[in-house]
């Protein structure tokens, strides 16, 4: 695991990786049969990377859960916090949904962008950009903001839907990959040249 220097966030990133692994195993797929880059999935499951929001969305889509479901059991367990009500606007980007949730949680806490930035150890200008949906945060930043606002990280992704865009593989290719056995590998380390 790559350490962030913050034990709580490191533990939450590990839990996120375990949630991915459990969701992947629940649908019976190996890392290389997910339709995503196997190495990237491996890094995420081992908490060696903090994915950006589009990656969280793609992984959630691949393991057939919502992005918020990948954050279940992580961070504050204040189940009374439900987040803002979302209208069903399929055109809203994940960054826009996250921004709405962030603004709602910040206003609920009654603090300014500057105060949140100090508490979460995030740049104040980034708070504004996130709230306006103009930039995708990475998971580490989402976890820091949720902790500072004392809300469950899953609430921060409420209303964020899995991408309807195709992954690296089309839906037909992914279905075929699930139905067929994994390819046999020849001896030795795959991809290594001598």
Describe the structure in your own words.
The protein is mainly alpha-helical and 194 residues long. The chain has 2 domains: 7-73 and 164-176, 434 Repressor (Amino-terminal Domain) (Orthogonal Bundle), CATH 1.10.260.40; 94-156, lambda repressor-like DNA-binding domains (434 Repressor (Amino-terminal Domain), Orthogonal Bundle). 48% of the residues lie in helices and 0% in strands. The chain has helices spanning 7-26, 38-45, 53-62, 94-109, 113-120, 124-131, 139-149, 153-156, 171-179. α5 crosses α6 and α5 (113-120) packs across α7 (139-149). It is globular and about 45 Å long. The model is unreliable at 166-178 and 182-194 (pLDDT under 50).
Radius of gyration equals 18 Å
- What coarse outline follows from CA principal-axis ratios? globular
Task: Specify the CATH homologous superfamily of the largest domain.
Answer: lambda repressor-like DNA-binding domains
Strand runs, count: 0
CATH fold category name of the largest domain = 434 Repressor (Amino-terminal Domain)
- The unreliable regions are 166-178, 182-194
Short description:
The chain is mostly helical. It has 9 helices and no strands.
Layout of helices and strands, plus pairs?
Elements: H1 7-26, H2 38-45, H3 53-62, H4 94-109, H5 113-120, H6 124-131, H7 139-149, H8 153-156, H9 171-179
Helix pairs in contact: 4-6, 5-6, 5-7
Write out key terms for the chains shown.
194 residues, 2 domains, 434 Repressor (Amino-terminal Domain), mainly alpha, single chain
